[in-house]
Structures are given as structure tokens and as C-alpha cells.
């Protein structure tokens, strides 16, 4: 008999034979049925089938044989004794069909009460040896296993479990042999193909272990003494990678986890004897997962029972010993693999012994040693594994990463060692991850309280961990002259100039650390200050990087000064102490600013200037006059020496004016006067006329202090405001001169309107005697503006007519295209001289700000001062209802 | 036959209770391609042959005769007489037997020996006017050999009734089939001869099977002359204790250098025809890529004079016992039920022998066959 050429033919043949077989069975013609069955089974002899195709046929045939089996059982007592049939079917000439038939009849016979079960089972499994072809043998034995599933010896029978398990083990061993053998058949170049096929077939072998686990149930002694040693021996002996990996996995998965706990040593020791190519990581990982599952289940039950801790064995100790052994025996084990194993064991440790951080320390220590041994040979690949290891990537055991990292950092020396020997890129990755974790939002308040720095050493450790990030060098130019690389480098450099991701994290980290100082341990400001200084000193190592991190530190100093002030007020007894302390802190601030100045040079002058001013303002608020003056003078010297850009200068002056205007304690010794005069002077010396104009009219406010309600000042009540109307007027006049001498007509007009606004401000806030800004002055100014606007309009109309002549066509097109004039762009001018384009009047948020707008129409430009003036006039008219004086303003 | 030449008398030979008697299906001719079978009544050794002969005369006709004679004949017929030319063979055969050269079964086969001839007259000369029946009996008829129908040799038994006439005699034969049963308790007669063969194989395993596989192939079927001759030489040398022979398992250890080394074992060397052959094959070394392995039972018929014997092998059973290629250390079980097959027990007489061999054949992926034969003895039991 021969088999079909193609799978399709085979399937249709099987179907056909099945129909014939069923018909014969219906007619009680068993011999014919057997003949058809055997024809059908011939299909399973086809050596050309791929595993998947073979499986398809197998499934069909299995179903057909089920029909036959049912018939055989039914008709056992009337004519077809199964013992006779068992012999009869063995006449089949080909071994594969013969054995399928034999198993079918044999297992049917098993269903008959009082059949010699043991003999039949033994005989079937023995005869199966006749099929030595891997695929056919595997399926045949799988068939045997499937058929005998419910039909092994009954449990009541003596020694039945032993017999049954032996039966399955025997079958398993043979299947495994066949499975392994499959790898070594056929030409060498099809090796990969065969590995793939084997993976498709692995479930057949694995199913035996599943069966075994069902038989064994909870009989640990049987498992430990009889079954596991045999299984492990098989696994070791076959020396096949696919097999060893798969079967280890299956063993770990199918047998109960408490078994693994008891047989851990055997499992671990055996794993050392496996093929070198077997991924030990995978095995350990699976094992760890199972054990973790066990402990979690136990804990769940425990919480219900409120029982004592059931774990007596030190699981981790065993793993540790195993790890050492592994390290000894397999010095070639790659970092990747080792880190995978360590990660699994870490997870185990975290789940089993969540409080024991020293375990982790040991593990990190081992990896560190390993890394050092490998030295330079470490590959790029291993880096990512180390990052995973260091960040405990995706570990179930880590319930709270913040807490985890906190513990690791504060308690594991080896963690730092390991981190320090990584390359800087992975160090940054790890640190970024850790910092992100600390900075991440955590709604769990309970865990928050656990992360408190209670000793200096803890902070020290933190800082040591952070050190690589602190000291990281800014980019070095690439050695090659490759244009692309240089371009990229330059792009990065300019980005770095503005913002450094890592340094930003550090700055945030500084805040985090200060916030998480355990206030019960560090009660006094002084002690906290000490910690901050520690941070500062470490951050100082960053060199140029401090321009990113120092502002944070300075901010924290400011915070402490505030705190001191509160204590000073609260505890009058220690007033002197706190004042001294504050002074001291200000000195630290000064030191910080100086450091920045010295280290960073021109890059951050603006920042230094602002920090100085801010510190000065703070000192002023605390009535520390001398300190305040000193910071102001520092700011001035920075301004004078280092701020050269005209726009920055203008901005700096505005900022200075703002700060000074709010100072209250500098009046003594004429400091205030000195400073404001100097400011105004600088303002009038600015490069551009418009800047001069604006700076000076802003400075005019310096002679006109206004109330600060937060410190209890009130207009009308407080009498000691610094107000000097003459000076104000002088400033305004100086400003008007500057505006007048600005050649750009539009800007000139705009500036004048702005001055008019300032004048109106003073007009509202004081009477003519004190402010010296009177009706006549205002009227004169309005007159001047009106004249200027008139000439401006004239210019505008001329231009428009010119344009109409020149671009008549295009305008027409534009008009028709635009449709509505309501949507026309509108422009205003900012206080720093920028043009602001309001895209849509209704939606002012989408403003476009620029110093020069290219496509701006001259007509639009003219509209800016015109409209501004209109708004001011409108204001004046509105004020007339409230203030009679406004009626005298001529419009 | 046409009606005109129809013989004037119909002779019918009926054994007693023939209908209920066991019959044996025998192919009409082993050599011819058409596989028609005839069903022959079975008679045992020593059984009395009893029956009735009926002579029927055509309606209204009278037949004169010179007597009616019945005879029972057992003969050995051969087609070829070994290496000698057939003419001389026929000469010798005619010399050896005084009976006619008639062969009962196959026209091609000539009788070489008539080991049984009993005859007596059923009725004296006279005239047959109507149908008449004559009972006959051959009491306790001893039959030396089993019936056999081989390629070259037949052992056939028949009853012949002859009506002698002045003109051509009218005769009719009735074949019957004979089984000889061996008692299980004692070893059959012919074992003494064959046992030596078993011994022979055990002696010269290594030389025998380590041959070049290509040579093996060609040798497998036809060319067995030299082996048989060596067989005969050695059979003289070895005389063995026959009691041990049945119980002793057949154990062989064979191989091809650095390529294949197997050990096989059959539980015993002598089997009844309903027996089961049980054994195992142990692979000590396999470098062959085995496709499958089969066990075949070969019946070897050798006939003729010793030096020029004709040897014909027939494969009675082909039975696949292994699929795929085993590895070192594998043990393959053998179980072959014989009961379902039509096998021929070992036979031996002066003119021919029938021997049975178990042949283990390994076929590799390239289609080469490697085999090892070992003789077994088959005998018939009740």
C-alpha cells in the first residue's frame, strides 16, 4: 500500500476511507472496516510530510479511530473478542499502521472490565519502539498517550501510581529521544528548518510532562525521588539546546510550585550541567517566577488565616550559592546572561525578602566584579542590559520604585560601584530614569514619608550616585571633519547652551532632596543648611554645568533665609543668631554667584545679574541694607562690565527699575538715590533712542513710590513715600526729547503716545504741585502728537496712492480673494518696541511678535500710533465723568 | 471438451463424508501467473482412506471393460532435476519408477519418485450397463510426506480409478492433501538435519555479513548455490545434541565494520506453524541512515542431486518491524504471528528439502539492502 502524493489527496483519502469504514461498521463487517482503516493509516507513513501537515492528518485519523474504538468496545461481547483482535491487527505488514491499529484495539480492550491492563499497556509501549522515525514516532507515541489518558491503572490498585508514572516517563523518554534525533537528520544546511520543525513538535513532548504532573498530583516523595531525577537525567543526557530549554521550562511550569521549592537544589544543580548554549537566564527566570507565584499565594492565604510566616528556608541563599557556582564553572558567561539571571534573582529577593537590601548589595557586587573581569571586552549590547539591571527594569518585585531606589542608593555600596564602571551614556540613562522616578507624581502619600533623608551619609550616597551626571562634560567636538557630524555637533551645542536635559534633572533633584530631608532629624536651619552646602559642594564639581544647577541652590538659600527670618521674628531671644545666620547665607549666595561668574563666563551674565537683583530685593525686604546695597552694586558692575547687548541692557534696566521701585530700606545713607540716579543715567545712555526714551520714562517711577499693600502701605495713609515730582518731570522731558529725535515717524509718534500715557498716570496719581505734570504740559503733548500724526497720515496717504497706481491689479486680486476687510490683520506695538500682529481681533491669543514684520503695510504701521492715541483719548474722555480735572484736557 | 469425444463413462470418486471434511486451498500452479485455487480434502497420516467410486454410463449405452482398478498414489514430481539436462533427468526418473510418467498436478513436472502405490481391483472385467457404485477402502494408509506444491517440486497424493478397456482406458484421479503433524512433546524428525544449519550461521557471522552491500543485493534472491553447498559440507561436520535445540534461542551478532553492528535474538529456533516469533534487535552501532527494517520468512526449496540441486527461494512473509533510523542503544522488538500465514513446514527427503529462513533486512535511505538470514524450523502441530 502506498500513500498519497499531496496532503489534499491524503486528507480526501482519509475522509473516503473513514466513510467506507463507518459503512462497514454499520453492516457489522469488522474485517472490511479494519481493511479501510489500515488503508487510511497508510497515509501516516508518508515521509515527505511537514510536521504541520502530518498533524493535520493525525487529527483526522484520530477522529476516525475514535469511531472504530467505540465500535470495538460495543461489540466486544458479541463475536469480536478484543484479545483476538489485538492479535489479528498485528498481521498488518507495515509497522506504522500496525501500531496505530494495535493501540486502538489495545486501548479499547482496556475499557473492558477485567482486561489484563498492565500487560496490554506494557506491550503497547514496548512495541512502539518499532517506529524510530522522529516525526512518525512522536505522533505514534502521542497517540498512545492520548488514547491511554483515562485508561491507565485505576488509583485503587496497588502501586498504580508508580506504574502509571513509569508508563508515562518511558513514553516521555522515548519521545524526547526521537525529538532530539530529529535535529540530526537530513542535510546540514536544513538545520534551521529542522529546529523550526522541532519547535512545532515540542508540544507533543511537553504534553507528556503535563500528563505526568496530573498523575503525580501532590505526591512529593514520588516526584522528588522517582520522577524528577529521571527527567533531569534525560534532559542532561540529550545535550540538545532546544530540548533542554523547553523541557526545563515545562518542568517549571507544569509541576506545583511547592515541589520546586523542595527540589530547588536539584533543579539548580542540574542547570549547570546543561549545554553551554542553553540560556541559563531563561531557566532561572522561569523558576524565580514560579517561586514568586508561590510566595504570593502563600501570603494571600496567610493574610486570610493570619498565620505565622511559613517560609523557613532561605531561598535566596540557595540561589546565591548557585550563582557563585555558576560563576565559577562558566566564567565565559556573558554579561547579558548574567545580568538577566541577576535580575531574576533580584526580583525573587524583592518578593521574598522585601526588606533585605543587603541581598541586592551582594548581587550588585557580583556583577561589578564580573564587569571588572571582563574589562574592555564589554560590548555595546551588554550596556543596555546593565541599564535594565541598574534600573530594575520591569521587575514585579519592585512595588514602589521610589522606595526601591531610595533603599538601593542609601544602602547598597555595590550599586554605586557598578554604576561607576558603566560608560557615561548608560550612566546618564540610569540616572535619568532614577531621577524621573523620584520626581514622578506619586499619589501614595504613605510611601512618600518613607523616603526621607535622615542622615548625612544618606545624602552623601545620593550625591555620589549623582556625581557622574554632575560632572558630565559638555559635548566634545567630533574628531572627524565629517561635515554632517560637525553640523550635528553644532546643533547640539546650541541646544546645550540653552538647556541641558541632564542638568535640568539635577536641578529638580536638588529640590527633591531638600524637600525630603527628614525634618525630625534636621530640626535647625543650620543643620539643613549644612546639607544644602553639601549638595552645593558636589554640584560645584560640574564646572560650567553649575550655571544650570546653581540657580536652584541659590533659590534654596533664599528659602532658608526666609525661614530664618520667620524664626527671628518668632524667637526674639535668638534674634542675633538668626541675623548672623542670614548674613552667612547671603555670603553663600554671593559665593555661588561668584562661582558662576568665574566658571561660566559670559554665557550666563544675564542670569548672574538677575540673581544679584533678586538677592538684593530679598535682603531689602529683610531690611538688611548693607547686604542689599552690595548685591545691587554687584548687579551694576555686572551690567556695566558684561552686559553689552543693547536689548539685554534695556531689559536689565527695566528689571533693575522694577526691583528698585519696590525697595524700602535703602533710603538710609542715600543708597537709594545713588542707585536710582545711576539707573536713570544708564537709561539715558542706551544706544537706541527708543530704548532711551522708554527706559527713562520707566525710571521716572523711581521717584514716585507707590503703595505695596502686602507690607501695610496705603495710598493716602502712608506719608513717607519717596516722591519727587521735579525729577519725574525731568525724566519725562528727557524721554520726550528722545522720542522727538527718533527719526522713524511711526515709532516717534508711538513713543509720544506712550509718554502721554505715563503723564496721565502721574496726572491721576498726584496734583500738579507735587508731580509737576500739569494740564498745560499734557495739552502741549497732545498738540505735539496730533501734529505728528497729521504729517504721518499725509505720508501714509501718499504711499497708498502710489501703491494703488503700481499694484492696482494685484490689489484687486487680493481684495476679491480676501473678501471681508473685517478679518484684516491688526498691529500694536509692545513696550519693548516689538510689533505685535494680532491675527484675528476676536482671538488675540494667537499673536505674532517680531521686531520687524516684513509684509507689513505702511498703512497698517501708521495705524499703530493712531489707534493707540485714539484709545488714550477715549480714556481721557471716560475719566472726565470721574475726575473734573480731565475736562481741562483739550483733545 | 466437446460432446463428441466425451468419454462414455463418468467416474466419480467421493471420500466418506467429504463435505464435512476439512479442505485445503491450494493454488493450481505455483508457477503460473493466474492464482486460481483448488480446494482439496485433507487427509492425515495413517488415516484410513474410505469412499465410493461411482461409474456412470450414458443413457442406453453399454460399456465393455477389462476390469476397474483403484489405486492410491503418492509421488514426487519435479520440473527440473538440478544441473543435469532434463532429458537425462527424465530418463533416470523413468528408470526409477515402474509406473507411468504421469504427473498429477503440473504437466511440466515429471514424476521422479513414487513412494506410495497401492492398488486393487474394484470389479472384474465385464459390461457396465448402468451406473454402478463401488465402495473402496485403504486401511490405515501410511503417508511418508506432506503434500507440497512448490516451484520445482510437488509432493502429491491422489486416488486413481482406471477402467481398462480394449481401446483407451478411462481413468479419473482425485487429489487429496496430506498434513503430517508433529507431536509438540518431541522434536520432529527432520529437525536433526536442519539444526546443523542453525549452528552454521552462528559460527560464521562476521565473515558472512560484512560483505560489500552491493554484492549482498545481487546475492539476495537467485544466487544461493554456493551457500547451500557450503551448508551441506558443514552439515556433515556438525552433529548436535537435539534436546537442547528447541529451547536454545537464536542469538546473532552481526555487523559491517564501522558502519553497522547489531545483535539480534529470536527466542527459539523451532516454531510450530501457529507460533509467534518473538525476538529483539539491539543496535550497537549505526552509521547507516536506515529507512526501514523488515523481517521476512523465506522458504527455500532445494531439489535434485546434491551437487546440482535447484534452489528456489520464496518469500512467504514480509513484515516491517521498524520504521526510521534508530540510534545506538535502541532495542527493536520483534513479534510475528505465524498462524495467519500459509506456511510450509520444513521437509526433507532424498529428492528435495524445504527449509525456512528468517531474514532480517535493513534498507537504507539509498535503497541498499543489508540482510542476514538465519534458519528456523517450522513444523506442523495439531
From TrEMBL, chain A:
Plays a role in vesicular protein sorting. GO terms for cellular component: cytosol; late endosome; retromer, cargo-selective complex. Belongs to the VPS35 family. It comes from Maudiozyma exigua (Yeast). InterPro entries: Vps35, Vps35_C. Keywords: Membrane, Protein transport, Transport. It is a peripheral membrane protein. It is found in: Membrane. Its main location: membrane. This is Vacuolar protein sorting-associated protein 35. GO terms for biological process: intracellular protein transport; retrograde transport, endosome to Golgi.
UniProtKB/TrEMBL annotation, chain B:
GO terms for biological process: intracellular protein transport; retrograde transport, endosome to Golgi. Residues 84-105, 204-237 are annotated as: Disordered. InterPro entries: Arrestin-like_C, Vps26-related. Residues 205-215 have a biased composition (Acidic residues). It comes from the Eukaryota. Gene3D superfamilies: 2.60.40.640. Pfam families: Vps26. Residues 86-104 have a biased composition (Low complexity). Keywords: Protein transport, Transport. One of its GO terms (cellular component) is cytosol. Belongs to the VPS26 family. This is Vacuolar protein sorting-associated protein 26. It comes from Maudiozyma exigua (Yeast). The gene is PEP8.
Amino acid at each position: 500500500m502506498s500513500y498519497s502524493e499531496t496532503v489534499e489527496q491524503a486528507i480526501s483519502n482519509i475522509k473516503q476511507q473513514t466513510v467506507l469504514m463507518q459503512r462497514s461498521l454499520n453492516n457489522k463487517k469488522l474485517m472490511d472496516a479494519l481493511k479501510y482503516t489500515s488503508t487510511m493509516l497508510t497515509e501516516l507513513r508518508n515521509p515527505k510530510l511537514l510536521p504541520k501537515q502530518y498533524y493535520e492528518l493525525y487529527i483526522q485519523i484520530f477522529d476516525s479511530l475514535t469511531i472504530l474504538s467505540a465500535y470495538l468496545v460495543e461489540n466486544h461481547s458479541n463475536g469480536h473478542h478484543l484479545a483476538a483482535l489485538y492479535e489479528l491487527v498485528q498481521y498488518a505488514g507495515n509497522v506504522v499502521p500496525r501500531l496505530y491499529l494495535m493501540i486502538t484495539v489495545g486501548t479499547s480492550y482496556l475499557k473492558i472490565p477485567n482486561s489484563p491492563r498492565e500487560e496490554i499497556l506494557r506491550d503497547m509501549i514496548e512495541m512502539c519502539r518499532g517506529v524510530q522515525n522522529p516525526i512518525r514516532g512522536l505522533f505514534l507515541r502521542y497517540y498512545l498517550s492520548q488514547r491511554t489518558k483515562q485508561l491507565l491503572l485505576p488509583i485503587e490498585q496497588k502501586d498504580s501510581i508508580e506504574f502509571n508514572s513509569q508508563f508515562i516517563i518511558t513514553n516521555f523518554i522515548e519521545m524526547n529521544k526521537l525529538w532530539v534525533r530529529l535535529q540530526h537528520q537530513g542535510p546540514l544546511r536544513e538545520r534551521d528548518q529542522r529546529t523550526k520543525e522541532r519547535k512545532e513538535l515540542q508540544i507533543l513532548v511537553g504534553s507528556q510532562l503535563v500528563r505526568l504532573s496530573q498523575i503525580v498530583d501532590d505526591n512529593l516523595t514520588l516526584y522528588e525521588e522517582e520522577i524528577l531525577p529521571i527527567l533531569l537525567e534525560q534532559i542532561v543526557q540529550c545535550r540538545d539546546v532546544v530540548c533542554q530549554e523547553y523541557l526545563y521550562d515545562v518542568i517549571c511550569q507544569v509541576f506545583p510550585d511547592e515541589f520546586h521549592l523542595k527540589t530547588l537544589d536539584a533543579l539548580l544543580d542540574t542547570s549547570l550541567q546543561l549545554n553551554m548554549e542553553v540560556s541559563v537566564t531563561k531557566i532561572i527566570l522561569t523558576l524565580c517566577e514560579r517561586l514568586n507565584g508561590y510566595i504570593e499565594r502563600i501570603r494571600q492565604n496567610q493574610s486570610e488565616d493570619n498565620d505565622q510566616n511559613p517560609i523557613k528556608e532561605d531561598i535566596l541563599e540557595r540561589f546565591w550559592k548557585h550563582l557563585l557556582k555558576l560563576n565559577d564553572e562558566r566564567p565565559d558567561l556573558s554579561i547579558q546572561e548574567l545580568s538577566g539571571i541577576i535580575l531574576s534573582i533580584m526580583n525573587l529577593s524583592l518578593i521574598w525578602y522585601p526588606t533585605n537590601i543587603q541581598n541586592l548589595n551582594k548581587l550588585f557586587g557580583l556583577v561589578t566584579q564580573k564587569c571588572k573581569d571582563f574589562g574592555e571586552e564589554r560590548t555595546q549590547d551588554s550596556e543596555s542590559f546593565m541599564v535594565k539591571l541598574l534600573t530594575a527594569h520591569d521587575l514585579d518585585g519592585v512595588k514602589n520604585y521610589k522606595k526601591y531606589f531610595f533603599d538601593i542608593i542609601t544602602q547598597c555600596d555595590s550599586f554605586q560601584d557598578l554604576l561607576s564602571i558603566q560608560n557615561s551614556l548608560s550612566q546618564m540613562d540610569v540616572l535619568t530614569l532614577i531621577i524621573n522616578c523620584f520626581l514622578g507624581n506619586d499619589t501614595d502619600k504613605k510611601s512618600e514619608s518613607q523616603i526621607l533623608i535622615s542622615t548625612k551619609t544618606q545624602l552623601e550616597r545620593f550625591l555620589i550616585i549623582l556625581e557622574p551626571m554632575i560632572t558630565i562634560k559638555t559635548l566634545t567636538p567630533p574628531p572627524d571633519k565629517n561635515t554632517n557630524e560637525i553640523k550635528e555637533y553644532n546643533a547640539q551645542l546650541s541646544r546645550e547652551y540653552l538647556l541641558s536635559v541632564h542638568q535640568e534633572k539635577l536641578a529638580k533633584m536638588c529640590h527633591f532632596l531638600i524637600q525630603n530631608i527628614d525634618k525630625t532629624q534636621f530640626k535647625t536651619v543650620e543643620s539643613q543648611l549644612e546639607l544644602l552646602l553639601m549638595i552645593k559642594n558636589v554640584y560645584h564639581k560640574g564646572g560650567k554645568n553649575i550655571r544650570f544647577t546653581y540657580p536652584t541652590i541659590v533659590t534654596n538659600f533664599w528659602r532658608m533665609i526666609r525661614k530664618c527670618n520667620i524664626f527671628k521674628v518668632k524667637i526674639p531671644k535668638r534674634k542675633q543668631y538668626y541675623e548672623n545666620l542670614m548674613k552667612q547665607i547671603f555670603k553663600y549666595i554671593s559665593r555661588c554667584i561668584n562661582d558662576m561668574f568665574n566658571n561660566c563666563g559670559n554665557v550666563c551674565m544675564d542670569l548672574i545679574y538677575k540673581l544679584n537683583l533678586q538677592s538684593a530685593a530679598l535682603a531689602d525686604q529683610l531690611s538688611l541694607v548693607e547686604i542689599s546695597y552690595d548685591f545691587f552694586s554687584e548687579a551694576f558692575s555686572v551690567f556695566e562690565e558684561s552686559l553689552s547687548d543693547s536689548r539685554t541692557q534695556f531689559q536689565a534696566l527695566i528689571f533693575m527699575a522694577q526691583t528698585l521701585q519696590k525697595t524700602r530700606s535703602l533710603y538710609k545713607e542715600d543708597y537709594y538715590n545713588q542707585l536710582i540716579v545711576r539707573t536713570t543715567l544708564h537709561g539715558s545712555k542706551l544706544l537706541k533712542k527708543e530704548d532711551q526714551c522708554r527706559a527713562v520714562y520707566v525710571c521716572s517711577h523711581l521717584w514716585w513710590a507707590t503703595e505695596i499693600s502686602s507690607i501695610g502701605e496705603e495710598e493716602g495713609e502712608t506719608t513717607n513715600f519717596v516722591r519727587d515730582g521735579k525729577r519725574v518731570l525731568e525724566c519725562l522731558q528727557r524721554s520726550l526729547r528722545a522720542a522727538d529725535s527718533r527719526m522713524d515717524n511711526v515709532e516717534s509718534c508711538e513713543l509720544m503716545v506712550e509718554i502721554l500715557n505715563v503723564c496721565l498716570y502721574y496726572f491721576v496719581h498726584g496734583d500738579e504741585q507735587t508731580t509737576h505734570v500739569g494740564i498745560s504740559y499734557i495739552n502741549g503733548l497732545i498738540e505735539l502728537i496730533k501734529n505728528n500724526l497729521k504729517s504721518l497720515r499725509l505720508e501714509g496717504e501718499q504711499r497708498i496712492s502710489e501703491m494703488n497706481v503700481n499694484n492696482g491689479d494685484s490689489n484687486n486680486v487680493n481684495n476679491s480673494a480676501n473678501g471681508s476687510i473685517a478679518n484684516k490683520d491688526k498691529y500694536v506695538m509692545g513696550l519693548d518696541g516689538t510689533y505685535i500682529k494680532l491675527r484675528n481681533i476676536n482671538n488675540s491669543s494667537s499673536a505674532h511678535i517680531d521686531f520687524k514684520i516684513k509684509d507689513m503695510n505702511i498703512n497698517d504701521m501708521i495705524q499703530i500710533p493712531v489707534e493707540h492715541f485714539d484709545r488714550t483719548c477715549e480714556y481721557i474722555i471716560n475719566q472726565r465723568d470721574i475726575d473734573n480735572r480731565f475736562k481741562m484736557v483739550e483733545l | 471438451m466437446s460432446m463428441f469425444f466425451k468419454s462414455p463413462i463418468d467416474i466419480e470418486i467421493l471420500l466418506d463424508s467429504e463435505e464435512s471434511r476439512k479442505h485445503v486451498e491450494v493454488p493450481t500452479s505455483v508457477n503460473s501467473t493466474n492464482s486460481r485455487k483448488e480446494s482439496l480434502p485433507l487427509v492425515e497420516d495413517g488415516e484410513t482412506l474410505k469412499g465410493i467410486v461411482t461409474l456412470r454410463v450414458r443413457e442406453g449405452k453399454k460399456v465393455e471393460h477389462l476390469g476397474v482398478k483403484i489405486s492410491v498414489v503418492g509421488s514426487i514430481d519435479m520440473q527440473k532435476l538440478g544441473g543435469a539436462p532434463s532429458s537425462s533427468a527424465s530418463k533416470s526418473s523413468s528408470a526409477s519408477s515402474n509406473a507411468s510418467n504421469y504427473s498429477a498436478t503440473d504437466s511440466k513436472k515429471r514424476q521422479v519418485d513414487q513412494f506410495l502405490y497401492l492398488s486393487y481391483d474394484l470389479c472384474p472385467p465385464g459390461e457396465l450397463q448402468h451406473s454402478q457404485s463401488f465402495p473402496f477402502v485403504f486401511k490405515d494408509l501410511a503417508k511418508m510426506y506432506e503434500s507440497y506444491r512448490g516451484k520445482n517440486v510437488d509432493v502429491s497424493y491422489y486416488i486413481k480409478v482406471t477402467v481398462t478397456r480394449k481401446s483407451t482406458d478411462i481413468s479419473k484421479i482425485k487429489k487429496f492433501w496430506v498434513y503430517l503433524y508433529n507431536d509438540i512433546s518431541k522434536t520432529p524428525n527432520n529437525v536433526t538435519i536442519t539444526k546443523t544449519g542453525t549452528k552454521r550461521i552462528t559460527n560464521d557471522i562476521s565473515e558472512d555479513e560484512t560483505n560489500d552491500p552491493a554484492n549482498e543485493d545481487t546475492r539476495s534472491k537467485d544466487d544461493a548455490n554456493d551457500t547451500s553447498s557450503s551448508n551441506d559440507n558443514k552439515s556433515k561436520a556438525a552433529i548436535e545434541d537435539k534436546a537442547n535445540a528447541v529451547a536454545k534461542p537464536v542469538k546473532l551478532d552481526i555487523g559491517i565494520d564501522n558502519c553497522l553492528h547489531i545483535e539480534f535474538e529470536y527466542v527459539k529456533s523451532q516454531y510450530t506453524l501457529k507460533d509467534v516469533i518473538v525476538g529483539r534487535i539491539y543496535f550497537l552501532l549505526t552509521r547507516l541512515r536506515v529507512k526501514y527494517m523488515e523481517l521476512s520468512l523465506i522458504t527455500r526449496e532445494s531439489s535434485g542431486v546434491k551437487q546440482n540441486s535447484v534452489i528456489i527461494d520464496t518469500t512467504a512473509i514480509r513484515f516491517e518491524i521498524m520504521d526510521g533510523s534508530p540510534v545506538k542503544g535502541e532495542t527493536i522488538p520483534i513479534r510475528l504471528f505465524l498462524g495467519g500465514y500459509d506456511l510450509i513446514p520444513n521437509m526433507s527427503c532424498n529428492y528435495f528439502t524445504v527449509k525456512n529462513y528468517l531474514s532480517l533486512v535493513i534498507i537504507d535511505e539509498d535503497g541498499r539492502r543489508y540482510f542476514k538470514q538465519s534458519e528456523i524450523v517450522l513444523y506442523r502441530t495439531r
